[in-house]
Amino acid sequence: MLRRKAGLVGGALLMILAGCTAAVLNDAPPARLAPAGSRVGRSSTVVYNPDGAKELVTMRREDALKKIVDFCGSNKYRIDREETKEARESGGAYSGLATAGASRLRHVTFTCL
């Protein structure tokens, strides 16, 4: 019984952590490992779960914006498009904690400047 409770608590903690992250779709190393300016003109998309408590959604969006800065290597970026799609419309490109259990995903497409 104790193991079962521990498993439930661990699962609940995993879902709480999942609610606070975003995922970025890219095939490049973090910008801090790339030469300065090498990401200028590159575009990508970051996603987060737009559902839940207002404070939680705000935290997810802030995390998404941090991931954009990490990808671009600076605060110089342009948000080209934002849209909310059903998770099944995302083609399975996004997975992991950031999208676990989400029925909808907020897509933020950006370009590094």
Brief write-up:
This protein is of the alpha+beta class and 113 residues long.
What is the topology?
Layout: H1 2-18, E1 23-25, E2 43-48, H2 54-72, E3 77-86, E4 104-112
Antiparallel strand pairs: 1-2, 2-4, 3-4
Describe this structure in words.
The chain is an alpha+beta fold. The chain has one domain (2-112). It contains 2 helices and 4 strands. The chain has helices at 2-18, 54-72; strands at residues 23-25, 43-48, 77-86, 104-112. The chain has a 4-stranded antiparallel β-sheet, with helices on one face. It is globular. The N and C termini lie far apart (55 Å).
For this entry, give a set of tags.
alpha+beta, 113 residues
Mean pLDDT: 75
What number of structural domains do the residues give?
A: 1
Helix percentage? 25-40%
Termini Cα gap: 55 Å
Helix count, DSSP H or I runs of 4 or more residues: 2
